[in-house]
Design goal:
about 210 residues, alpha/beta, 10 strands, 6 helices
């Protein structure tokens, strides 16, 4: 199905990996959960079914992918669980009028330059609950002086990431500096068995 391939394939593997990771790290049925760049609901179909009525929120820039996902992946859950779904290109999470206990942006920042990432971070800060958790994945460059392509070791296919074009890689310190400047905390988690070698971090609110 094209709507599955457009979000990177690995449909069952990546949906299950994200879902089990979130539950392991505390996602409960009563939590308000935001799936950033939810696509055609690779994770969403599992999260919607698990979460209490109305607690799933998904946002994506691609209207066609969203509509195909609703039609082919979650049509049976639209009434039963009432997921909140928004087509939006500007990370305007505030339009949901909700503070989120859990959020994830999986394989999103890997396609964005730093200025667009900054916009995303600012909008995360505005909707992340006081004790909320936001997980974000990225391709890692371990040496800031390395400006060459990096081959990401993964079992699925040969993949090269770049300093200045999609797919992007960044040092964790570069992203940490940006996140801290916005006024959020961040913790490096690193490996989480991602099949394409994306690392993961945890963003939280600063407590006074």
């Amino acid at each position: 199905m094209n709507h599955r391939n457009k979000v990177g394939g690995l449909w069952e593997e990546m949906g299950t990996l994200q879902f089990e990771f979130l539950k392991k790290n505390g996602l409960k049925q009563n939590h308000k959960f935001l799936d950033i760049a939810c696509g055609s609901f690779r994770l969403g179909r599992l999260a919607i079914d698990y979460l209490d009525y109305g607690n799933y929120f998904g946002i994506d820039a691609d209207k066609e992918v969203l509509e195909d996902g609703k039609k082919f992946e979650i049509s049976n859950l639209m009434v039963e669980k009432r997921p909140n779904i928004l087509h939006n290109k500007e990370f305007q999470f505030y339009k949901f009028n909700t503070k989120f206990d859990f959020m994830i942006a999986q394989s999103l920042w890997t396609h964005l330059n730093l200025n667009i990432i900054l916009k995303c971070i600012v909008n995360i800060k505005n909707v992340l609950a006081k004790n909320g958790k936001c997980y974000v994945t990225f391709f890692e460059n371990e040496n800031i002086l390395n400006v060459s392509k990096i081959e990401q070791i993964n079992p699925t296919n040969k993949l090269f990431t770049n300093l200045d074009s999609d797919p992007y890689h960044y040092t964790f310190q570069t992203l940490k500096n940006l996140i801290n400047e916005v006024g959020l905390n961040v913790e490096y988690i690193g490996d989480w068995d991602h099949p394409r070698n994306q690392k993961i971090m945890l963003i939280t609110q600063k407590h006074k």
